[in-house]
């Protein structure tokens, strides 16, 4: 995404008469950018459109298009704090009514779907329009296993991809997110992810979810699961901690405009080999017992003991056990039971066990989305567990 | 350079958890037997984990320390025993990074007799500007009907000064001459000192001994209109240059006399509720809610931007000035059987010893502290049930070193024990080997864990800091029951029912909750749903010294009880 000091060199081309829709693009090839701009100008009146990109304007672009280049200082795989600060500053400066933020590889999206995102905010009352992707069966599993069910259970939001890199914001939503983001940028954490769905839920803003079809996932260079999972999970845990006073109160399910025509059904197909995952889990069961026993209550440890003794194909992690494990790690994160880095590292083998279980379940006939929905439902059912443990974190009785 | 406010909400103090400590008593980093700012810095994470959001520092300024730092010799520096000004700034930044505010003392009623202003005043000729910094008289008959506060040590509010050849006025110890607020230079100097600390980023000021700032003959010299003008001047100066700062008034007065210190929201934002504290102890001893409900009935409404400061114990004696003579006699008999437990007009004991170290009583009193309308103020060490030492002089018995672990000097300092500023508590019940942070951190059932959980729970519900209070009046007088209600501008509402059993035996309670018929109470600690409220009296049974906090939820949002089943095999 485009970040850092965005306005210094853009004013020459982008005047200040006001833009209906401000679009912030992540870096892409000239060809991709050309296609994206062509679609945007076809979908929105050029006079109400203002596009910012870290790339140069392609030579054959519509001359009526208001376009400005902004330096890209971040190569983050998702939207981060600096992006949201910049988005609001640009939106405010250009009197935009909506900000469409498109992350890396957004050119792979069905471009007509972007119209839905932007239109939802421009037409009001949606403050936050979030993309719902049609991803391959085993893609985005950290989201499916942790981010989505936690967000859904605690913030009563059915947004399937709470960390979606393609979103559209109303001006007040952008302002709110910029306010949160500034706390990170002020402490040199410009790359920190933000949680727009949680913010919108707390603010009582209207959230919309829109089916945007398939999407190429940006493959971060360098960091793997050992980095990504602690990063996003830790960030979400911290956000949940900060918003405890909100999510611990039972509230009616907020109205989320769900524009998903049908759920994405994925069954069968080539399945990843679960053997290394289960080996990692079993090794961790031997080596990480000491840490897990600081975090998990006896009933969960007993469940893990049974799992560790289960053969590969029969390996199934009960949804409620997984929900309680994640909740107990969330609690340990809040209580700083152990070093937070170590804590989140100790979650990885458990996550891999869940993935192995998920693969086993889906290869034996169940479709992936059905299982993910069942997991999310388990998180909802166990919400009272985390609330009571949060308020009285005593592992004696669990 | 002026630092911006660390708090973003102008009413931050309403949701705060304030922790009172003395730098000297908290942690010693350099092994000289005296606590210091680097030591305090090293313990900030502990305070953060406890849930503290505002640290109140007792005076840490250069001082002869004859009154534990309330005799200030320099308003704009740090006592070298506690570190340097840079150490203070480092501590302040670290606190702010942890989203904690910092409150310091503005002791402006008096200075030390070692303050350069007083030294100059003694030598200056009568009528001179230097002399006029303090209150002088040729006779000790002026203001002769004004009461003496430190009755154990002072026989008069005047002391003759041989150098000045005149009497000087002091409401407290004779080595603490009162500043003369009729002299505009005094006000200028006070504002200068105040700005010095606010510019550094200090969030709150506790104005010590606020009722006594101005004197007028023929009056009690307390709570005078001129005093309120001084307070307004200070507040105006703060509001003009600083955002989101707080003034807390120390006015040991009846609620009706404290009320004017809030003004129309344009004097102090907070003031201690002194009379409530002894009555909580009285109610516990008498197993009767009347002392509490009576004093709350006498408590006037305060402006929306103002807040009471609530406490169970502090660095001073459990003051009995704001009780009747009979009540005082009762409290002395009940809580200070040994005369050494008394000082001035009060009882110099900590929370745990006051209630015979009974865990249930400690928890009950803390539940009231955390659920009554106001901001709770915890005194350092009370979260682990620290004891006191009644054989130390003055109020030093409740100012002993913080007990961190069972190592030498309770982990407070690595110095030779003989070098400690005060000895650590060593008796078999409250001694540091038995009562310390380290042990309680490793004990899930400890008072420290309990306190931490309760603070965290309170912080989840804004109603405790901002809501209204209304008492229920069950027939059983041993039951104290009240509703806290917060109506927000967005239409949302928080309602909490608090019920406390002041008795050592189990008690029944039948509460008239017909006005909430249909609501479903949820016990807040365990998130346990209770039976729905109907028009009929709501019947509860409370264990000895137990309490219940119940959130009254609309019927549609009742939680489902989580099962405690074992995982499927």
Summarize this structure as a short list of keywords or feature phrases.
heterodimer; A: 398 residues; alpha/beta; Spore Coat Polysaccharide Biosynthesis Protein SpsA, Chain A; 2 domains; 15 helices; disordered N terminus; B: 569 residues; eight-stranded parallel beta barrel; 26% helix; disordered C terminus
Write up this protein:
- The complex is a heterodimer of chains A (398) and B (569).
- Chain A contains 15 helices and eight strands.
- By secondary structure, chain A is α/β, with parallel strands linked by helices.
- Chain A has an eight-stranded mixed β-sheet, sandwiched between helices.
- The N and C termini of chain A lie far apart (45 Å).
- Chain B is an alpha/beta fold.
- Chain B is 26% helix and 17% strand.
- Chain B contains 16 helices and 22 strands.
- Chain B has helices spanning 23-26, 37-42, 44-50, 85-97, 116-123, 184-200, 225-241, 255-258, 276-286, 290-297, 325-335, 351-354, 359-371, 437-441, 447-460, 463-466; strands spanning 18-21, 54-57, 101-106, 136-137, 158-161, 166-169, 204-207, 246-249, 270-272, 307-311, 318-319, 342-343, 346-347, 375-379, 468-472, 479-487, 493-501, 507-511, 520-523, 528-529, 538-542, 547-553.
- The radius of gyration of chain B is 24 Å and the shape is globular.
- Chain A binds chain B through residues 187, 204, 244-245, 248, 250-252, 299-300, 302-303, 306, 318, 320-321, 335-336, 381-385, 387-388, 390-398, and chain B through 49, 97, 444-445, 449, 453, 456-457, 459-462, 490, 524-528, 553, 556-562, 564-569.
């Amino acid at each position: 995404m485009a970040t850092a000091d965005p306005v210094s060199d853009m004013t020459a081309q982008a005047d200040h008469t006001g833009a209906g829709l401000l679009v912030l693009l992540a870096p892409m090839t000239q060809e991709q950018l050309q296609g994206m701009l062509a679609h945007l100008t076809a979908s929105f009146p050029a006079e109400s459109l203002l596009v910012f990109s870290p790339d140069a304007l392609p030579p054959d672009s519509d001359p009526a298009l208001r376009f400005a280049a902004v330096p890209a200082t971040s190569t983050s795989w998702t939207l981060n704090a600096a992006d949201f600060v910049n988005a609001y500053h640009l939106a405010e400066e250009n009197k935009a009514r909506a900000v469409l933020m498109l992350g890396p590889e957004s050119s792979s999206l069905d471009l007509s779907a972007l119209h839905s995102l932007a239109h939802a905010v421009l037409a009001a009352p949606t403050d936050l329009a979030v993309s719902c992707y049609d991803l391959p069966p085993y893609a985005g599993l950290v989201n499916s296993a942790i981010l989505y069910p936690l967000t859904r259970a605690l913030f009563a939001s059915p947004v399937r991809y709470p960390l979606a890199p393609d979103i559209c914001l109303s001006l007040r939503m952008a302002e709110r997110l910029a306010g949160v983001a500034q706390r990170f940028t002020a402490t040199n954490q410009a790359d920190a992810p933000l949680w727009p769905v949680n913010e919108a839920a707390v603010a009582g803003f209207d959230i919309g979810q829109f089916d945007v079809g398939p999407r190429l996932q940006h493959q971060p260079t360098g960091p793997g699961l050992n980095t990504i999972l602690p990063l996003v999970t830790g960030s979400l845990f911290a956000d949940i901690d900060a918003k405890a006073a909100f999510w611990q109160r039972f509230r009616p399910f907020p109205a989320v405009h769900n524009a998903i025509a049908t759920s994405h059904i994925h069954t069968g197909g080539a399945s990843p080999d679960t053997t290394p995952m289960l080996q990692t889990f079993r090794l961790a069961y031997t080596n990480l017992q000491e840490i897990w026993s600081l975090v998990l209550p006896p009933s969960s440890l007993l469940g893990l003991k049974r799992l560790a003794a289960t053969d590969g194909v029969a390996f199934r992690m009960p949804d409620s056990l997984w929900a309680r494990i994640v909740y107990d790690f969330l609690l340990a994160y809040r209580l700083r039971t152990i070093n937070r880095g170590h804590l989140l590292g100790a979650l990885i083998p458990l996550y891999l066990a869940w993935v192995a279980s998920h693969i086993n379940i889906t290869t034996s006939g169940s479709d992936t989305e059905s299982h993910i929905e069942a997991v999310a439902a388990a998180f909802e059912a166990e919400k009272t567990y985390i609330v009571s443990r949060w308020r009285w974190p005593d592992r004696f009785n669990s | 350079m002026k630092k911006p406010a660390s708090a973003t909400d102008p009413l931050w103090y309403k949701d705060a958890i304030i922790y009172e400590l003395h730098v000297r008593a908290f942690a010693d980093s350099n092994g000289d037997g005296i606590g210091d700012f680097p030591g305090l810095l090293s313990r900030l994470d502990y305070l953060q984990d406890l849930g503290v959001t505002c640290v109140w520092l007792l005076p840490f300024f250069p001082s002869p320390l004859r009154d534990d730092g309330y005799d200030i010799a320099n308003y704009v520096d740090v006592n070298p025993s506690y570190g340097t000004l840079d150490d203070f700034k480092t501590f302040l930044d670290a606190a702010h990074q942890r989203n904690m505010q910092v409150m310091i003392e503005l002791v402006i009623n008096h200075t030390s007799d070692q303050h350069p202003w007083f030294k100059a005043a003694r030598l200056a000729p009568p009528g001179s500007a230097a002399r006029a910094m303090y209150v002088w008289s040729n006779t000790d008959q002026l203001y002769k009907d004004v009461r003496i506060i430190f009755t154990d040590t002072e026989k008069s509010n005047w002391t003759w000064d041989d150098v000045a050849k005149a009497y000087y006025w002091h409401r407290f110890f004779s080595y603490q001459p009162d500043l003369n607020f009729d002299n505009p230079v005094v006000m200028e100097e006070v504002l200068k000192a105040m700005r010095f600390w606010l510019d550094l980023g200090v969030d709150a000021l506790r104005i010590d001994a606020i009722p006594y700032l101005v004197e007028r003959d023929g009056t009690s010299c307390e709570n005078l209109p001129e005093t309120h003008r001084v307070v307004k001047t200070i507040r105006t100066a703060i509001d003009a240059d600083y955002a989101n700062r707080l003034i807390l008034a120390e006015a040991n007065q009846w609620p009706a006399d404290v009320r004017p210190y809030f003004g129309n929201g344009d004097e102090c934002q907070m003031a201690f509720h002194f009379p409530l504290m002894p009555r909580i102890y009285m109610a516990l001893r008498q197993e009767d809610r009347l002392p509490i409900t009576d004093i709350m009935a006498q408590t006037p409404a305060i402006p929306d931007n103002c807040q009471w400061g609530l406490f169970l114990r502090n660095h001073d004696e459990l003051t009995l000035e704001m009780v009747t003579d009979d009540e005082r006699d009762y409290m002395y008999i009940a809580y200070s059987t040994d005369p050494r437990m008394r000082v001035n007009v009060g009882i110099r004991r900590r929370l745990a010893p006051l209630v015979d170290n009974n865990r249930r009583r400690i928890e009950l009193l803390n539940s009231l502290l955390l659920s009554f309308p106001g901001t709770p103020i915890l005194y350092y060490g009370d979260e682990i049930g620290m004891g006191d030492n009644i054989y130390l002089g003055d109020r030093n018995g409740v100012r002993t070193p913080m007990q961190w672990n069972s190592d030498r000097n309770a982990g407070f300092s690595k110095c030779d024990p003989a070098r400690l500023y005060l000895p650590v508590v060593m008796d078999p019940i409250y001694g540091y080997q038995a009562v310390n942070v380290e042990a309680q951190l490793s004990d899930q059932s400890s008072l420290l864990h309990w306190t931490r959980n309760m603070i965290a729970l309170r912080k989840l519900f804004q109603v405790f800091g901002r809501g209204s209070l209304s008492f229920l009046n069950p027939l059983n007088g041993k039951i104290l029951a009240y509703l806290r209600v917060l109506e927000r501008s967005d239409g949302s509402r928080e309602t909490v029912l608090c019920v406390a059993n002041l008795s050592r035996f189990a008690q029944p309670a039948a509460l008239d909750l017909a006005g909430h018929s249909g609501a479903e109470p949820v016990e807040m600690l365990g998130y346990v749903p209770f039976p729905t409220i109907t028009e009929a009296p709501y019947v509860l049974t409370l264990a000895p010294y137990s309490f219940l906090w119940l959130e009254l939820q609309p019927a549609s949002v009742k939680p489902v009880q989580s099962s405690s089943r074992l995982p499927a095999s």
